[in-house]
């Protein structure tokens, strides 16, 4: 019996890759209450970034949903910002806040997301979250009305928002600006039309635009900048706070103009094939996050971010850093204080996933093979302690890494990184994107990582299952996933 206890106090069976000092605590993960140690670790942090090891795994969405609900209910978080397009996600924001003409139900709104890969947000797991957010906000609004308080734009900040951080929506953002100006100030539409017309010869094809600007000096940069400048010059007029949702309507149109500006630069840079386009994208995400925090109240607002591990796990603790790549998780830690930020990574050992074999191809359900020997995913599969050994139901776990509040992360990484390939502290963590070929994954789907520095906490789901996309007709749309986790 003494040997049994000692055996399960060793954190990694058969390897010393995570030393005991790097893990503060871990526990089996079966139900919502098992997240208590994660909520304790989050404490009063202002930023919680929830990752995913793929864009097509049901359990990642469902556990992020459960964490999100608890953060909103128990810690008063203000909004969710996701790795999605601003215009599409703003439809969700409008719906959950009950804005006029914002849609009848979350299914129809999410089904309208038509940019490939549609399954990232048009899925049944998201329907459940969006409906929960709608009900939560309805209750908040009812409570305000019961107190006989006017539900103005100021009180709107007490309900939860939903926004997109990404920059792909060049044409959609410009079209949203045109529609806004037609409604509020038709005389000011000239700059927006000039920007729109500049892109029109490329047939709404960003690749055509990017290729054209690679060979000739002419581009549409000046037009999108002028459009943004023109909008900002009338901010005081457009964002009067005593006219319903005018303040957020202006914020929306200004963000669309910023997104169009960033998208133009991104697509123009992307054609060169260097890392600058990645950095432009994640800097845009960070800038958008900072704008959202300011809009909701710098001193008291809190943000939940949903994005892939490659965006939310600190890039300095991966091989991305050798290519001078940054990401959102790194930027939030640097700009907002690492002690005010919690990065939550996700991973799996095996299962199924929704992805495509090539960019733009039809989505399909694919098998995720057992993690390669020596990878973090394989090591975490074998991670045991008494709470997990005593469970006959699950090998899933939530892991809390040790926080050294006095140590600079760059110094900690340097201490571990003299040779990333041969140093046992650097191991691959699986990353599945929207394009995936399981038979080749060992050649390109494992990111060299210092796990305990890349994340603050980690949810490991041993066996995972494919997401439930809304656009796959073979799936019965009435057959929603069971409430997850069980026991709630």
Shape: globular
Helical stretch count? Answer: 21
CATH class descriptor of the largest domain? Alpha Beta
> Could you tell me the strand content as a percent range?
5-15%
Percent of residues in helices: 40-55%
**Mean pLDDT over all positions:** 85
Report, as a whole number of angstroms, the end-to-end distance: 34 Å
> Would you count the extended β strands for me?
11
Poorly predicted parts: 1-16, 418-422, 474-488
**Name given to the CATH homologous superfamily of the largest domain:** EreA-like (biosynthetic domain)
- Please, how many domains? 3
CATH fold node name of the largest domain: EreA/ChaN-like  fold
Rg, please?
Answer: 23 Å
Largest beta-sheet characterization: 9 strands, mixed
Q: Based on the coordinates given, report the CATH architecture of the largest domain.
A: 3-Layer(aba) Sandwich
Structural class: alpha/beta
Care to describe what's here?
There is one protein chain. This protein is α/β, with parallel strands linked by helices and 488 residues long. The chain folds into three domains: 1-77 and 303-488, 3-Layer(aba) Sandwich (EreA/ChaN-like  fold), CATH 3.40.1660; 84-164, no CATH class; 167-301. The chain is built from 21 helices and eleven strands. It has helices at 2-9, 36-42, 58-75, 86-96, 106-111, 124-146, 153-156, 170-184, 190-199, 206-215, 221-233, 235-238, 246-270, 276-296, 309-312, 328-336, 376-381, 386-389, 409-415, 441-444, 451-454; strands spanning 23-28, 47-50, 79-85, 161-166, 303-306, 341-355, 364-368, 397-401, 427-430, 446-449, 457-464. The strands form two sheets. Strands 1, 2, 3, 4, 5, 6, 7, 8 and 11 form a nine-stranded mixed β-sheet that branches. The longest helix is centred in the middle third of the chain and has 25 residues, at 246-270. The radius of gyration is 23 Å and the shape is globular. Residues 1-16, 418-422 and 474-488 have low confidence and may be disordered.
């Amino acid at each position: 019996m003494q040997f049994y206890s000692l055996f399960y106090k060793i954190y990694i069976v058969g390897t010393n890759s995570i030393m005991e000092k790097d893990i503060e605590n871990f526990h089996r993960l079966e139900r919502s209450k098992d997240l208590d140690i994660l909520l304790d670790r989050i404490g009063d942090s202002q930023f919680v970034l929830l990752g995913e090891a793929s864009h097509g795994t049901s359990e990642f969405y469902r556990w992020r949903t459960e964490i999100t609900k608890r953060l909103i209910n128990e810690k008063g978080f203000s909004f969710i910002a996701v790795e999605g397009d601003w215009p599409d996600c703003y439809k969700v924001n409008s719906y959950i806040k009950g804005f006029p003409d914002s849609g009848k139900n979350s299914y129809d709104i999410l089904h309208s997301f038509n940019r490939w890969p549609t399954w990232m947000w048009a899925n049944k797991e998201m329907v459940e979250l969006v409906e929960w957010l709608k009900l939560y906000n309805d209750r908040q609004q009812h409570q305000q009305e019961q107190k006989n308080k006017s539900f103005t734009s100021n009180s709107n900040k007490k309900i939860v928002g939903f926004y997109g951080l990404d920059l792909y929506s060049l044409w959609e953002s410009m079209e949203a600006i045109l529609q806004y100006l037609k409604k509020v100030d038709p005389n000011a539409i000239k700059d927006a039309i000039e920007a729109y017309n500049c892109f029109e010869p490329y047939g709404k094809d960003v690749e055509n635009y990017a290729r054209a600007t690679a060979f000739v000096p002419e581009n549409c940069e000046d037009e999108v900048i002028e459009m943004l400048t023109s909008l900002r010059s009338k901010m005081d007029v457009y964002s009067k706070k005593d006219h319903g949702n005018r303040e957020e309507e202006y914020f929306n149109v200004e963000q669309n103009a910023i997104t169009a500006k960033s998208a133009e630069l991104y697509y123009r840079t992307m054609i060169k094939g260097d890392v600058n386009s990645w950095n432009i994208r994640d800097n845009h995400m960070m800038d958008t996050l900072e704008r959202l925090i300011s809009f909701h109240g710098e001193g008291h607002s809190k943000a939940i971010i949903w994005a892939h591990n490659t965006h939310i796990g600190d890039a300095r603790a991966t091989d991305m850093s050798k290519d001078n790549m940054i990401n959102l998780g790194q930027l939030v830690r640097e700009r907002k204080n690492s002690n005010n930020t919690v990065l939550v990574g996700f991973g799996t050992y095996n299962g199924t996933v929704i992805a495509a074999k090539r960019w733009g191809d039809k989505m399909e359900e694919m098998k995720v093979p057992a993690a390669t020997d020596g990878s973090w995913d394989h090591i975490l599969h074998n991670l045991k302690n008494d709470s997990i050994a005593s469970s006959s139901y699950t090998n899933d776990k939530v892991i809390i890494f040790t926080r050294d509040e006095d140590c600079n992360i760059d110094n900690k990484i340097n201490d571990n990184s003299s040779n990333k390939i041969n140093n046992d502290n650097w191991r691959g963590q699986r990353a599945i994107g929207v394009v995936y070929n399981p038979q080749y994954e060992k050649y390109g789907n494992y990111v060299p990582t210092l796990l305990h520095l890349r994340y603050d906490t980690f949810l490991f789901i041993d066996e995972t299952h494919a997401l439930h996309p809304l656009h796959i007709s073979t799936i019965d749309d009435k057959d929603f996933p069971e409430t997850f986790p069980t026991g709630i």
